[in-house]
Amino acid sequence: MFSTFALRHRTGRGSVRRTLRAVIGPVLALAAVLALASPVAAAPATAESAVRGGDVLFRTGGHCAVAFNATDHTARYGLMAGHCGPVGTQWYRDPALTVPVGVTTVARFPGASWSVVRYTNTTLDYPSEIGGPGGAVRITQAQQPALGQAACRYGRTTGLHCGTVTGVNQTVRLPQGTLHGLFRATICGEPGDMGGPVFAGSRGLGILVGSSGNCAVGGSTYHQPLAPVLAATGLRVGY
Question: CA-to-CA distance for 171 and 107, rounded, in angstroms?
């Protein structure tokens, strides 16, 4: 787990240092569905029989949120933040660790922040959706974020919040190493929100990996882009 770390974001006019508080503990729930996150009919599977983006999986000594589900045309996978666990981490549906779901097969942290969980429990469904009590949001494709683009994210602590992409190709320096290629947005975040999906309508944008400020006074969030993760792994969303 890491707490406060120095942030450097680069622009054409130089580098600026900031302090960014990133808190690990990704456990998410949908508070509302806005215009950018229009609800669609959920899959027939119930919440108990399906794992969707935003759901929490548990491991020995911790838990993490699934940001997005993906496929290689044969198997199903969950995409998480890179700090969630090393290769070989076993994940469960419940905090008592009685219902196994899958195992981490790829983990990238630092340098980037993403990991891949191969789902092994065939009694569960893994739709290409972000779930929540407000209704499922279907993710049909990944998109590289662009400056000025509207985006939304949600988390267990603060629910759904939206903002604008204000920086791309950002660099974050941590005690554990450096993260490259992140994007920044004017979306607040607080402890418990980290690791969740960031999206624009049906397009998946990234994984929340750090924030500054809070949702009472405002702040910024930093995200691992989704598209490079899919390119590196040969996976896709929108199945």
Answer: 19
Dihedral sign (CA 131, 137, 143, 144):
negative
Write down the pLDDT at residue 29.
26
Mean of the pLDDT values across residues 212-233? 95
Q: Is the pLDDT of residue 41 over 70?
A: no
Question: Is there a common fold for 4-35+132-233 and 49-126?
Answer: yes
Given CATH 2.40.10.10, say whether it is the number of domain 49-126.
yes
Q: Has residue 10 got a pLDDT over 50?
A: no
Q: d(Cα 166, Cα 150) in Å, to the nearest integer? A: 10
Could you give the residue ranges of the DSSP H alpha helices within 86-178?
Answer: none
Domain boundaries, the chain: 4-35+132-233, 49-126
Burial class (CB in 10 A: 0-12, 13-18, 19+), 9: buried
Phi, psi of 186 (to 5 degrees): -85, 55
Global pTM value: 0.80
Least Cα distance to 184 among 225, 230, 141 occurs for 225
The CATH-assigned architecture of domain 4-35+132-233 is Beta Barrel (2.40)
**DSSP codes, 191-212:** TT-TT-EEEETTEEEEEEEEEE
Give pLDDT tens digits for 92-141: 999 999 999 999 999 999 999 999 999 999 999 999 999 866 788 999 99
| Helix H or strand E encompassing 233 | helix 226-233
Q: What angle do CA 29, 183, 126 make, to 5 degrees?
A: 40
